[in-house]
Structure formats: structure tokens, C-alpha cells
Automatic annotation (TrEMBL):
Family matches, as InterPro entries: AdhesinB (IPR006129), Bact_metal-bind_prot9 (IPR050492), ZnuA-like (IPR006127)
Pfam family, one: ZnuA
Family: Belongs to the bacterial solute-binding protein 9 family.
Signal sequence region: 1-30
UniProt KW Iron-sulfur keyword: no
The keyword Transmembrane is assigned to this record: no
Keyword annotations from UniProtKB, A to Z: Signal, Transport
Protein name: Zinc ABC transporter substrate-binding protein
GO molecular function, one term: metal ion binding
Organism: Brooklawnia propionicigenes
Gene Ontology process terms (BP): cell adhesion; metal ion transport
Length: 312
């Protein structure tokens, strides 16, 4: 089933003032990890996270201008929009987003009603968020859907279907590009499946519980020091629990990500005599990323996991 137009009336308006008065993150130009790419007079696509940019660029080629609202190295959850970015969303031919991930973008879509919205929550199977310390997930879902490569392949196919509706003369090109993207992501998925099959442990600890889709796809057990919020401070009891898990599973590594302070992960690792390493949730691509695109960074993630978990 192809979902082309997401509902834009079900979400309440809570932060319009924040949307309009948010920090001015200027839209940059010309093929940067956050900014615009593609032909100047093509279809306009606006996204709020790098993986959606990657998929849109691969599917559209030079037939679209893709604008990423999130600046390199930023925490995707904290996106705020400048007036210029609100205008970009309003005037876009297509907005690709994950509802419940970035409140400012959700609310701008609700208010401004861009022509077409592709909400990945409407066609992907969402996973519940990691439980909080009180034992409840409060009905939240993990928004990091792209950390399962096959989810990103499906997103690419959905983008191709919407672009074919906008620009039917180039429908065959969009379909062919989406098929090539799926082939590449299927190859990446095969590498993960093979690379994480024979491992000393299936458990990994990370400071931000963003890897639920990766863990679910490849039969791993994610332990987040904190939950989905990168700003949440774990309690002493939670830190002690994480340390005990590390001991029980004889773990070697505590993972952190470049967009979040590594201090907590480093402290826990130091207390246990363990090392730290990067596991990238790929919300953005920056100069600190271990690769130049989604596939390269995900491959680096695979290498880190194999090394930490003693995979053969």
C-alpha cells in the first residue's frame, strides 16, 4: 500500500511561538549534509533529518531540490525553525518527516499545510520507546526508524511514489532510482545480518536509546543509559543497574554519539575499566561522522558493534 498524503489535522498546536521565534538555523546551499542539493528549478523536498535527505536525494537525483532543516552535528530532537525555514516547509512540494520526532516540524506542518506530507509513521511499523525508569513507556514510540536499513528502503519507495504523482513525466526515473537504493540497502542489511550472527554477546550499552530498530532487526539487546531523550539525566540507581549489566555480560565497550556529550559514557566506562566508542544514530551527517553518507556511517557502526561484541 502506498501512503502519499499524511493526515495533518490530528496533532494539537503547542509551540507555534517556538516555531516562529526559534533559533535561526539558516538553510545552507549546495550539497552539504544540511542544506540544499539538486537542480535549482526542480521539485522542492524538505526533510528534518539526514536519512530522509539521503533517501530523497537518491530517489530524486537532479530532478529535485532537497532541503534538510537540521544543521550538521545537531540533536534532531531539539530542532527549532527560523521564519525562513517555516516558509520553506510551507512552500515545499513534499515534506518527509517522522511525526513525534520533532515537535517544531510537526506543528509547522499542522499550521502551514504544505502541499504533500509523507509521514513515515503512517506506513512503517513503529517500535515502543525504551521504558523509562518508572517502568512505563508512556505510549511513546521510537522515532529512529532509519536505523533499520530496510525501513529506509521502504521510505525511498514511498518517496518515489509521491514524486511520480507530482512529476509523472519522470515516474520511471524515480522508480528506477528507488530500486537501486533498495538494492544498496539490502546489501547493507545482508552485511549486518552476517556480521552480527556469531558474536560473544548480543548486548550493547549506549548513552542514548536510539537503536531499537537496529537491535530489533539484528536480534541484539540495547541497553540505554538514558531513554530516547538525550537530555534526560539517569538516576544513580539506573547508572548502577547499567554497570551491573555490563559486568554480567562481560562487555568491553560503552557507546556514545558525537552529538551528545560523552562524559557520562566515559565515566561509566572508566569506573568499570572499559573502553568507549561511537555508535552513530545518523540524525545528522557532519565532519565528525565516520563516513560520507548513510551507508558508510552504518558500515562504521557495524564495525564498532562487531569489535565490541566479539563477533567472528
Amino acid at each position: 500500500m502506498i501512503i502519499m498524503i499524511a493526515s495533518r489535522t490530528k496533532r494539537p498546536v503547542r509551540r507555534l511561538a517556538a516555531v516562529l521565534l526559534g533559533a535561526a538555523v539558516l538553510i545552507t546551499t549546495a550539497c552539504t549534509p544540511s542544506g540544499e542539493s539538486g537542480a535549482g528549478d526542480g521539485t522542492s523536498i524538505v526533510v528534518g533529518a539526514y536519512p530522509f535527505q539521503f533517501a530523497a536525494e537518491r530517489v530524486a537525483g537532479d530532478l529535485a531540490v532537497v532541503t534538510n532543516l537540521l544543521s550538521p552535528g545537531s540533536d534532531g530532537h531539539d530542532l527549532e525553525l527560523s521564519p525562513k525555514q517555516v516558509t520553506a516547509v510551507t512552500n515545499a512540494d513534499l515534506v518527509v518527516h517522522q511525526s513525534g520526532y520533532q515537535a517544531a516540524l510537526d506543528e509547522t506542518i499542522t499550521q502551514q499545510q504544505p502541499a504533500r506530507v509523507l509521514d513515515t509513521a503512517d506506513f512503517l511499523q513503529l517500535l515502543p520507546a525504551t521504558q523509562t525508569e518508572d517502568g512505563h513507556d508512556h505510549g511513546a514510540y521510537d522515532p529512529h526508524v532509519w536505523l533499520n536499513p530496510m525501513n529506509l528502503a521502504e521510505i525511498g519507495g514511498q518517496i518515489a511514489a509521491v514524486l511520480a504523482e507530482i512529476d509523472p513525466d519522470n515516474a520511471a526515473s524515480y522508480a528506477a532510482n528507488a530500486a537501486r537504493l533498495t538494492d544498496d540497502l539490502t546489501g547493507l542489511d545482508d552485511q549486518f545480518s552476517a556480521g552480527l550472527t556469531n558474536c560473544r554477546t548480543d548486548t550493547f550499552i549506549t548513552n542514548h536509546a536510539a537503536f531499537g530498530y537496529l537491535a530489533d532487526r539484528y536480534h541484539l539487546h540495547q541497553v540505554g543509559i538514558s531513554g530516547l531523550s538525550t537530555e534526560a539525566e539517569p538516576s544513580p540507581a539506573r547508572i548502577a543497574e547499567v554497570q551491573q549489566i555490563a559486568r554480567e555480560h562481560d562487555l568491553t565497550t560503552i557507546f556514545y554519539e558525537t552529538a551528545v556529550s560523552p562524559k557520562l559514557a566515559q565515566t561509566i566506562a572508566s569506573d568499570l575499566g572499559l573502553k568507549t566508542d561511537v555508535l552513530d544514530p545518523l540524525e545528522t551527517l557532519s565532519s565528525e561522522s565516520r563516513g560520507d553518507d548513510y551507508i558508510q556511517v552504518m558500515t562504521a557502526n557495524l564495525t564498532s558493534l562487531r569489535d565490541a561484541n566479539g563477533c567472528q
